[in-house]
């Protein structure tokens, strides 16, 4: 074995092989360091296999004796098999994409195949079926070369290798047929260099063609890999990062222009050409003829930036101009190489904004029309309704004389409904004032216990008419708050009215006033059907009721609790409820105690 490491002085064939070995090594290092592209692992495997193949070929050229030359020829077979195999998988990954169905076949082809062929070659001394006895050392082209007498295992191995070489050709042809025209030139070049080692090997096998008395296949494969490595380094079609950048530039729906530090046009994408048309100057010329861009470029060249620029309008479209600086590798006083000016299409956004403005104006006009309508209708109804209510009160109080019982009941019904209508009109007017911000709330010190008591007295007639028992647990001491007695009375009236209406005949409504942590808490507990969870927006909404059907049992405008919540918000208080379906609801009203009352409460507690 040591004898097979003794090398002859290098001659021209060895020097050429060594140069190719160095070239492939440099390409391998370059690809390993900087490039990312589909099929990169398989391509690196083919480069490493090519390095081994060239090394074994150089050793075969450099050693003496038939046995040593055959040994290095046998040791070359891992590279011989692996180079076309890995090349095929590279082409498959790059041109057609990595298919999950090849997951199991890939390691078998890349590792098991080369290993099996190598074992057959190295065991030739036992079976003689790879290189037969006719193999001999002869002189050719001024140097000793081995003429191999190929056995059946050699042809099996060659068939295996050719299967991958033919597959690589088929992959590239299929890729050419499927690829866009912009890629076909590159893929055609890829097909040509894929055919080079096939042609070299066929010339050797069929016609005995050699280079320096040696099989030309490794040299042709090495040439292919070096050429293709150069294409990888220099061709944008192989680098996935460059492909993505080109796509962003050429396929962008926004115009993009690249200018140098002197303001000359360096590149322009197709969308910019569509937008500006013939006004675009030739490459290398200043941006003359584009008045929309000239002041922006002047500001950039002066060291400024593009911030909140007015939209550029061209061809019925609107664009928001933006610029990114291209820096020199070494920063200095003039570090800008140029700028990328992109015009972001905001036509759709402007149209949407205009539509929203129009919708807002229409909504404001509709709200104003509604408010004016409610105001007019409410005021027009209030005057005759006041006269009707006054007349009914006179009749009901026998001012004009006693009325028959049947007539008196009719008058009472009319008076009750006129009062209900008056409440509805007052609610509508209050809602209008709330929306306009004109509803006034005064402040004075009042005893909330007395106010609740007055409210219960006022609601007693309604409760009695509905068959509801209304009770009040009066507080033991005054509970002073600062507020508007009329508006707070309105709140209590709405809550008590709802409690009586929803409780039904024979039920009880219990009212209590409590003092809790510097606040007054009024509780109104009814025996109604209860309120389902998540109904707060409906309970306190405008013109909304839990039962909004036309056959609902309890009437009303659906404004009372909405107005009540607004009034309490103005007082720094709140309204809410706790409810259990089928058992009833307890509404609570909370207001802060007046400051002096709160201090008195703390003193009593102490």
UniProtKB/TrEMBL annotation:
MF terms (GO), sorted A to Z: phosphorelay sensor kinase activity
Enzyme class, broadest EC rank: transferase
Domain Histidine kinase: 376-595
EC numbers: 2.7.13.3
InterPro entries associated with the record: HATPase_C_sf, HATPase_dom, His_kinase_dom, HisK_dim/P_dom, HisK_dim/P_sf, HisKA_7TM, PAS-like_dom_sf, Sensor_HK_Regulatory
Chain segments annotated as transmembrane: 12-32, 44-63, 75-96, 108-133, 153-177, 189-212, 218-237
Keyword Kinase found: yes
CDD domains noted in UniProt: HisKA (cd00082)
Keywords attached to this entry: Kinase, Membrane, Phosphoprotein, Transferase, Transmembrane, Transmembrane helix, Two-component regulatory system
Catalytic reaction list: ATP + protein L-histidine = ADP + protein N-phospho-L-histidine
Protein name from the UniProt record: histidine kinase
